[in-house]
Amino acid sequence: MNRIFTSAALGASVLIVSAVACGLQQPDLKNLSGSIKIDGSSTVYPITTAVDEAIREAGSRIKVTVGLSGTGGGFKRFVVGETDISNASRPITKDEVEAAKKNSVDFIELPVAYDGLSIVVNKSNDFVDYLTMVDIKKIFGAEAPAKTWSEVRSDWPNAPIKVFSPGTDSGTFDYFKEVVVGKEGKIRSDMQVSEDDNVLVTGVARDKNAIGFFGYAYLMENQDKLKVVPVDAGKGPITPTHQTIESGEYAPFSRPLFIYVNKKSAERPEVKAFVDFYLANGPKIVEEVRYVKLPAAITERAKANWAKLRTGTQYLNDKGEKVSGPLSKVYN
């Protein structure tokens, strides 16, 4: 498998080995081999990598390759049939669905966890206690972006802001952009970008005037290096935690994470066994790698849809229009 481990995945590997011995549910893995190609979101990567570590510890000889192309990059490969599974930190889009249809790629959409997109500053930053959505737009938006902290709030230092962001192929970037500046808006271009969230962590940790954002697991792995910024979206400053993410209180930056499985690939026993294991043990593994597990009702819906090989996305209606709302209402 791909050995470009993130720090979160590395930490999880040790935990998962012991977790298997403590009773993870194991499908029949005897005599299973073959290979599975996975690509996509760097946010979902630690979960999928930890699943692979666990299933191999349970005796699987399936060869799993997990790439880090970002959600958009992963979907580009998935919709032409190059990969079996696509990790995604946002739902598939109308254009991606149409590309899949053009290439005769049917897929099963499966939520696997919750994430809270987390905004961070340097540990030595002693003036940013929280940010409003207006502040965030001033910092990240392309329209008259703030060059210094004092341009965000007049009582903040006249020091240059250095902005770090996931790459533009990332679902994290797409989600953040739409929340902050809207679907048609633009994000400032003078940012340091990377598809590897560990690069973002390092960048913010090294520059006292830096700010960045990424998934919740990377925040949990690097709390000693970074300062998390509560977000005030109109109901007072809220910090991302397991509780505020799962409840939706950490709005508008709480979001579900997904895997998408090629239906033709799902007919292969190694893919079926891998996804069976993923869904059966996902809640435990998700917690091990410091994401937020789905409510049991959502997990059961995902298992039922997988058992029926229910194809398509529930985030587009019959007219091809985007469907928005909490996972509990959208995903059935």
Describe the structure.
Mean pLDDT is 90; it is low at 1-22. The strands form 3 sheets. A 5-stranded mixed sheet has the order 2-1-3-13-4. The two termini are 33 Å apart. It has helices spanning 7-21, 45-57, 70-78, 94-102, 133-140, 171-181, 197-206, 216-221, 242-247, 263-266, 269-288, 296-307, 327-330; strands spanning 35-40, 63-66, 85-88, 107-116, 118-122, 131-132, 162-166, 192-194, 210-214, 226-228, 231-232, 237-238, 254-262. The chain is an alpha/beta fold. The protein has 2 domains: 7-114 and 256-330, D-Maltodextrin-Binding Protein, domain 2; 118-247, Periplasmic binding protein-like II (D-Maltodextrin-Binding Protein, domain 2, 3-Layer(aba) Sandwich), CATH 3.40.190. The chain is built from 13 helices and 13 strands. Helix 1 packs parallel to helix 2, helix 2 (45-57) packs across helix 11 and helix 11 runs antiparallel to helix 12 (296-307).
